[in-house]
Design a protein that fits this description.
- Helix content is about 40%, strand content about 20%.
- The protein is an alpha/beta fold and about 300 residues long.
- The protein has two domains: about 180 residues, 3-Layer(aba) Sandwich (D-Maltodextrin-Binding Protein, domain 2); about 110 residues, Periplasmic binding protein-like II (D-Maltodextrin-Binding Protein, domain 2), CATH 3.40.190.10.
- Strand 1, helix 2 and strand 2 form a beta-alpha-beta unit.
- The longest helix is centred in the first third of the chain and has 19 residues.
Length: about 300
């Protein structure tokens, strides 16, 4: 089956490259599986989160394995089957699948600037004749993956509030990956517009240069409503002692500590803070309005 092949690759990577852990020699049932829902391919995801997994394993004395579901359906399947112990996910994903998680001990991943909210921005080339959302009718737009709150869920809300039915009014729409990929597609005129995270326009300078993306060549024409940033949650079957240790390790991350700052920067985090299930009620209210394509 496809999902098994996709899953085994990251586990093999971590089994090969992670240093021996205090948990070595435990039975397979005592290996804790950490799911990341990425916007990028599996290699980029590994590069972003490898330092964080090493840190968490060292601080907790528990063996952690990375699980990278390819989409929302696969993630839900893993959760229902008890194949995921922890998850770092966007808010609409958590709201949809919150029945599988402990609602106490939640953590919110802050933005690179330390904020607790995130927005998506619609960008075009600086020399584009497109200046507002209505100008995108009969044009081509690249959204983020469906696991992204701001680059897909919030972006659809933004377009529809502006009177643009993406299935009818756009010439075409596509699903991209990370912000760099989407921005690059706009830059080379592969698409007329793209939706990226708002923090992309303020940071990632070195990474953007490596990708051949010059953000000064992009112009923002619209911004989504803000929504809470990503949430870390523990599955219902995880023992309280393990949940507590992992939570403490996350909260101990300090941007003033150079070592911590490096791994936070790699994962595009500004740190972590305690969160409550009610913090995501704004996401629930937004999702309560069901659009035809969601039914």
């Amino acid at each position: 089956m496809k999902f098994r092949i996709y899953l085994l690759f990251p586990l093999w990577i971590f089994g090969t490259f992670l240093p021996p852990s205090p948990a070595a020699g435990k039975s397979p049932s005592q290996v804790y599986r950490f799911a990341i829902l990425p916007c990028s391919n599996i290699e980029t995801t590994f590069g972003k989160y490898y330092p964080l997994l090493v840190y968490l394993q060292k601080e907790t004395g528990r063996e952690l394995k990375l699980v990278v579901p390819s989409n929302m359906e696969e993630f839900s399947h893993f959760l229902a089957g008890g194949s995921i112990d922890f998850a770092l996910q966007d808010p609409h994903t958590y709201v949809t699948l919150s029945r599988y998680f402990h609602t106490d001990g939640l953590l919110q991943a802050l933005s690179p600037e330390g904020g607790a909210t995130q927005s998506g921005v619609v960008v075009v080339r600086s020399d584009s004749v497109i200046h507002s959302l209505p100008d995108l009718k009969d044009k081509t737009v690249m959204f983020g993956p469906k696991v992204s709150t701001v680059k897909w869920v919030a972006a659809r809300m933004l377009f529809e509030a502006a009177g643009i039915r993406i299935d009818q009014d756009l010439k075409e729409y596509r699903f991209g990956g990370c912000c760099e990929d989407i921005a690059f597609s706009v830059s080379v005129k592969s698409v007329d517009a793209g939706v990226i995270c708002d923090h992309f326009m303020a940071d990632h300078r070195e990474k953007q240069q490596d990708m051949g993306v010059d953000k000064t060549g992009l112009r923002v024409i619209a911004r989504t409503d803000p929504f809470p940033t990503r949430i870390f949650a523990s599955s219902l079957g995880v023992p309280g002692e393990v949940r507590t240790k992992l939570r403490q390790a996350f909260l101990a991350l300090d941007r003033e500590n150079p070592e911590h700052a490096r791994l936070l920067l790699r994962g595009e985090f500004g740190g972590f803070q305690p969160a409550a299930d009610a913090d995501y009620d704004s996401m629930r209210r937004a999702m309560a309005w069901k659009r035809p394509a969601d039914k």
